[in-house]
Amino acid sequence: MIISCGSRKLKPDGHLQAVPAGELYIGHYHRSLRGAADALTNSQSQILIASALHGLVTVSQSLAPYEMTMDHPSSVTNDHLRQQADAFGLHGAEVIFLGGKHYAHRLLPAVPHCLRPLTGGMGTQRGQCRSVAEQPGLRRQWWAEAATLLREHRHPR
């Protein structure tokens, strides 16, 4: 399970150096993605966050606040994401990605078989996140679709 980070983050103060990635992103959109991810998984250890600066990070990985977007020239590279995907074992796993198109575009070369079920704008996507959190049947459907994409990736026609 991969979700995109968010532009709204905790702001550094005199005491805040680094916090777990799962606490750093505080915007409504990211919180919607996180709620859906929590509903789709059994454990926080199954959730990765796609950070524009750091690439794929665990929810518990400590990060200092930063400002960067995926379209910034210094953002994470496709090669770095590919290496991280290898390290996390994503090439042999069913993967659902929840997030925006800029993050999906950067993630696809690294994890070409990931399911990207969210469509439309941010408001529509937040509604889709709410739906999957509330509907076990939709969660099963998304995981079945992710399994199909993995099979097709392993055994192309």
Short description:
The chain has 157 residues and is of the alpha/beta class.
Give your account of this protein's structure:
By secondary structure, the chain is of the alpha/beta class. The protein has one domain. Helices cover 42% and strands 11% of the residues. The protein has helices spanning 21-24, 28-40, 78-87, 101-107, 122-134, 136-154, and strands spanning 2-4, 19-20, 48-51, 55-58, 62-63, 97-98. Helix 2 (28-40) packs parallel to helix 5 and helix 5 crosses helix 6.
**What coarse outline follows from CA principal-axis ratios?**
globular
Q: Reading side by side through the largest sheet, how are the strands ordered?
A: 4-3-1-6
Tally of strands: 6
Largest sheet features: 4 strands, mixed
* First-last Cα distance: 26 Å
* Radius of gyration using CA atoms only: 15 Å
- Write down the secondary-structure element order: EEHHEEEHEHHH
> What amount of the residues lies in strands?
5-15%
Overall number of domains: 1
User: Count the helices. How many?
Assistant: 6
What's the overall average pLDDT, rounded? Answer: 94
SS-based class? alpha/beta
- Spans of at least 5 consecutive residues with low confidence: none
